[in-house]
Amino acid sequence: MGAPFGATSTTDNVLDGLDLSGLRVLVTGVSAGLGIETARALSAHGAKVIGTARDIAKGRRVTGDGIDLIELDLGDLASVRARTDELLDRGDAFDLIIANAGVMATPFGRTADGFETQFGTNHLGHFVLVNRLAPLLKAGSRVVVLSSAGHRESDIDLDDPNFDRTEYTPFRAYGRSKTANILFAVEFDRRHKAHGIRAAAVHPGGIRTELTRHMEPGALERRLDQVNQLARAEGRPGFTWKTIEQGAATSLWAGVRAKADEVGGRYCEDCHVAAPVHAASKAPGGIRPYATDPERAKALWALSEKMVGEVFAA
Predict the structure, then answer these.
(1) How many whole angstroms separate alpha carbon 172 and alpha carbon 160?
(2) Of 286, 199, 269, 271, which Cα lies nearest the Cα of 10?
(3) Regarding beta strands 241-242 and 206-207, do their DSSP bridges make them parallel or antiparallel, or are they unpaired?
(4) How far apart are CA 47 and CA 56, in angstroms?
(5) DSSP secondary-structure letter at 290?
(6) Tens of pLDDT along 38-54?
(7) Contact 39/300 with Cβ under 8 angstroms?
(8) Which of 31, 102, 180, 207 would you call most buried, defined as having the most Cβ atoms within 10 angstroms of its Cβ?
(9) What is the pLDDT of residue 285?
(10) Cα separation of 298 and 307, whole Å?
(11) Residue 212 confidence (pLDDT)
């Protein structure tokens, strides 16, 4: 199914010929970048899109009239629980949830619940959101969790998820959170696939969006130089920027175009399932084995439930 698509495919390429009328989709983070394009493309092809935004006024300025907006802050579990309670009370089923929102390379900080900012926002906020909405998913539904090639920066640390003892660096924390995103998709898929509900993680590629707003001037360029040097040393292609339309394509490919069994429990990039690479590789592309380890996924799930104080049955 994925053969016609690749790194340069756009959202419109992926959705070409598809009528998504009747599909209900929740997309987090629709006030900027990939979230705006993801919601736009789905809506343009007939889907009913419900988008979340931390800044609801900003969300209204940048989204179209066909997208319903919900104010939700993934860094505050009280906000997540309040909004999910409202959606559960309505009882309207979802065919697809795209966990798109996130932060990157932030200075050390903590969420409203005391979690390290990136782990708390990128992983735990979506962990609670998606699990609480799971009763609204029916057979044939999917969950797509946006991760990143940044998972190569670090495995999760089950003993010190909040950097209470570990030296904090912005990209190590980002890498942990992005590895957690993948492991969450792996375990969610394992728990729900018997009921026809599948989950996948995706890397959108490198896109110039607001995600880099926390980085110091010149820091991004230095990191890209390092990545390209390592890629050349390993005989791999270097880094290439994508447009926003290309970046959002893999989310839609995994969500509505690819076969469920092809992407369920997998990590996807460039509109295909990523190939495994050695854990020590720093080159862009591929999936590091620790990020899809099923036992690590189970352990992270148990830790996440303990941290948020909520248990989620399959």
Answers:
(1) 13
(2) 271
(3) parallel
(4) 21
(5) G
(6) 999 999 999 999 999 99
(7) no
(8) 180
(9) 86
(10) 14
(11) 57
Strands 267-269 and 272-273: antiparallel
Amino acid 81 reads R
Give the H or E element holding residue 7.
Answer: none
Q: Is the CB of residue 203 less than 8 Å from the CB of residue 249?
A: no
φ/ψ of 6, rounded to 5, equals -160, -155
Q: Are 181 and 246 in contact (CB under 8 A)?
A: no
**Quick one: DSSP state of residue 17?**
T
Q: Tell me the two tokens of residue 28.
A: 């987090």
The partner residues of 86 in beta bridges, in order of sequence, read none
**Residue where the block lists tokens 């995994």:** 254
- Do 100 and 27 meet the contact criterion of CB atoms below 8 Å apart? yes
**Gap between the Cα atoms of 229 and 52, Å rounded:** 38
* Residues 142-159: tens digit of each pLDDT: 999 999 999 999 999 999
Domain 11-307 fold is: Rossmann fold (3.40.50)
Q: What's the rounded Cα separation, in Å, for the pair 193 and 314? A: 10
The pLDDT tens digits for 62-119 are: 997 889 999 999 999 999 999 999 999 999 999 999 999 999 999 999 999 999 999 9
- Active site residue ranges: 147, 174, 178
Nearest to 180 by CA among 10, 6, 301, 311: 301
Domain parsing of the chain, residue ranges: 11-307
pTM of this structure: 0.92
